[in-house]
Amino acid sequence: MKFIGKFGFIALSLTLGACSAKQAPPPPPLTLVTKAVPPPEPEPAPLSGAQILAQQPQEVQEAVKQHQQDGAWQVYKTPRRELYPYDEGQEPAVDCAPLRTTDIQLEPGETITDVASGDSERWLVTPASSGDPRNPTPHLAIKPTAPGISTNLTIYTTKHIYHLMLRSRAGREIQEVAFYYPEDLEQAMQNADHTAAEARDPQSQPDGVVASLASLDPGALNFSYAVSGPKLPWKPVRAFDDGTHIYIQMPATTKSSEAPALLVAAGDGSEMVNYRVRGDYYVVDKLFDQAVLVSGVGREQDRVSIQYTGAAR
């Protein structure tokens, strides 16, 4: 009995030891956060027009200052590089040399869709790109195969059409031709200053628009506007003016992606006007007699007209 008891005790000890070995390890100690989570970094303030200009190359900054004085946009030339203001109506002359490439640099982000050359046999045109692959800068490498020849070149992109005159003139070749874009730059600067002014003016915010409308005498508002067109999710509810601004009230369900563009009749055509989207309203900075809201392109385009029906003013 003693012998069996001894072995029984050993077996029990081994069993208890195996059970103990299979037990999960104790959990790690609980670590308490003793410091408050820092608040998120505030969003940077939007750039002003002057700050956008300061980011441009020195030549472009000088061109803007010169334009403010005489209304002209300057062309900058060095022995190896030429910088032109983009103008679809102009045709810069680009000097090249046989068996040497001249680089044509376009605007970052646009994509070359087609190239048309008057002499594609003796002029070699090779597309390329540089910079960030997510926002590349498109290039064309131009190379004539003979001296004393010339042709024209048209470059079609997703944003612009470029017209160039190419000349093969050994010894006078330009290594690089680039462009700056006055209209785009001026528009970006104006938009930046406009956004900054709205941020400083509480009345420019959506609540400010509602507050300013609530403060108007209803008898002073002119509702003599007719809205016509197909039934669309963004078709305006009504339009009215306060004598200086026109307010176009959009349905509350209008999505930002559906927001149409506003064109105002001018002469035989139409033109863009300054307006702001504030809450459910388009706030137009001038009075008009006829306008159209447009969404989509081509056959998929939707149009809604707004016509002033009141007395002559």
Q: What is the end-to-end distance?
A: 123 Å
Total number of strands: 19
Average pLDDT across residues?
A: 81
Structural class by helix and strand composition: alpha+beta
Morphology call: elongated
**Major pleated sheet:** 6 strands, mixed
Instruction: Give the oligomeric state of the chains in this entry, treating copies of one chain as homo and distinct chains as hetero.
Output: single chain
Can you tell me the residue ranges where pLDDT is under 50 for at least 5 consecutive residues?
30-35
- The amount of helix comes to 10-25%
Portion in beta strands:
25-35%
Question: How large is the radius of gyration?
Answer: 34 Å
Spatial strand sequence of the major β-sheet: 1-2-10-4-7-6
Total number of helices: 5
Series of secondary-structure elements, N-terminal to C-terminal: HHHEEEEEEEEEEHHEEEEEEEEE
Short description:
With 313 residues, the protein is α+β, with helices and mostly antiparallel strands.
Description:
By secondary structure, the chain is α+β, with helices and mostly antiparallel strands. It is built from 5 helices and 19 strands. The termini are far apart. About 2% of the residues have low confidence.
Blueprint (SSEs and pairs):
Blueprint (H helix, E strand, L loop, with lengths): L1 H21 L26 H6 L3 H13 L5 E2 L3 E5 L7 E4 L5 E4 L6 E6 L5 E8 L6 E8 L5 E8 L3 E8 L7 E5 L1 H19 L5 H9 L10 E4 L9 E4 L4 E4 L11 E6 L2 E4 L2 E4 L2 E4 L5 E6 L6 E7 L5
Parallel strand pairs: 2-10, 3-9, 4-10
Antiparallel strand pairs: 1-2, 4-7, 5-8, 6-7, 8-9, 11-19, 12-13, 13-17, 14-15, 14-18, 16-17, 18-19
